[in-house]
Amino acid sequence: ELRPWQSRLREQFPIIAGDPDLAYLDSAATAQKPRAVLDAVTDYLTTENANAGRGTYPWANRTTALIEQAQQRVRRFLGDPEPDRSGVHFVSGTTEGLRLVARDWLVRHLRDGDEIILPVADHSANTLPWREAADQLAREGVTVGVRPMPYDAARDYDHRALTAMVNERTRFIATTHVHHVYGGDMNIGRIRAAAGPDAVICLDAAQGVGHLPLSVAELDVDFVVFSGHKAMALPGTGAIWSRNRRGSRFAPGGWAGTPNTSGIVSLAAALDWLEEAGVEWIARWTVALGARLTDGLRKLPAYEVLGCQRSLAADSPVQQRHGIVTFRHRRIGSNDLGFILAAEGFMVRADGHCQAEGGETTSSVRVSVHAYNTVDEVDRLLEALARLDTEG
Ligand code: PMP
């Protein structure tokens, strides 16, 4: 159900426009940029580039205003109902953002005997900082219990086991929004229900922002951290949104220096673009492409689909699979498969996927789609994979 302008959507992305044979299928690593974002950056740099917050002249004041507007843009995009009670801090990406939450919030707020719950099968950006925070506190004589989020790759988080694990000492839960390998929506509403009203929840939304609607009003989380570059903004951008509740006022220390002004401009422009395109539409479109790929792969005996994509029925009403599908060939190594596909114009992620601890995905191929991908790309990829299914 493409709207008329959406069939021309690919043309808005200069890097892939005009070359229908190139299939960029690695948007979970980084997304391509629409012309509107590139234009916003060029406009800013060619008309009013200055440093923020320290000028008496119009360009500097304008730059300060653009950054404040971008903070409001992030709040609006996240459906923040109380913009006066939240903070937005721009960072270089999710990795830096989560690290800052650990360093400048978590270590200051945990007390002896507190417990935290970690998503062990997640991206290492969302496990290592919390472990390091607990280790640092241990060295200072503060003992914090670190519990792994009960995880079953085939079914996502086990919310019932999570409910049993939460107790009055549970202070902090780190979770992801959409899993970067399995594509599963972690169902934050159920995590909040399991967590009870008092635990602080930090959401790694690196794969969520721009891919599916995300409303902090509904989710009742305390931190949302995401990368701008995965949401069609420039590399080196990202944000920490934090709500000043549950004692969670977040004031990162050492905040000084020149902000990434053109990157922040690109982030605001990217959020404009995504909203205009319609995040709900993007979710439906990318879920449909992911489902098409999964269903096609299931018919090819040489391939094994990993994670929750494996077990959910194609017509599942649960919006649980997003546009990320990870699989492996039973005989061809994933790295080799990546090279074979690259030679045919398919850009996919091959091999490991930055999971420090849990996960079953060492050596696999990940295909991830965004608004600009097409049914034709998925079908051509399936044809290429099918050739290896019979030859292999
Ligand atoms: N968390 C998740 C779920 C991710 O997918 C990624 C990027 N692959 C990161 C964190 C890290 O993001 P960045 O590299 O932009 O810091």
Which tags fit this structure?
single chain, alpha/beta, Aspartate Aminotransferase, domain 2, 7-stranded mixed β-sheet, 4-stranded antiparallel β-sheet, globular, pyridoxal phosphate, transaminase activity, Aminotransferase class V-fold PLP-dependent enzyme, aminotransferase
CA-based gyration radius: 21 Å
Give the ordered list of helices and strands: EHHEHEHEEEHEHEHEEHHEHEHEEEH
Strand fraction equals 15-25%
Number of helices: 12
Domain count: the total is 2
Number of strands: 15
- Which structural class matches the secondary elements? alpha/beta
**Helix content, binned percent:** 25-40%
> How are the strands of the largest sheet arranged?
2-10-9-8-7-3-4
The CATH class designation of the largest domain is: Alpha Beta
**Average pLDDT level:** 89
CATH topology of the largest domain, what is it called? Answer: Aspartate Aminotransferase, domain 2
CATH H level of the largest domain: which superfamily? Type I PLP-dependent aspartate aminotransferase-like (Major domain)
Q: Biggest sheet: strands, sense, closure?
A: 7 strands, mixed
Low-confidence stretches: 313-319
Protein name: Aminotransferase class V-fold PLP-dependent enzyme
Family: Belongs to the class-V pyridoxal-phosphate-dependent aminotransferase family. Csd subfamily.
Organism: Actinoplanes sandaracinus
Domain Aminotransferase class V: 24-381
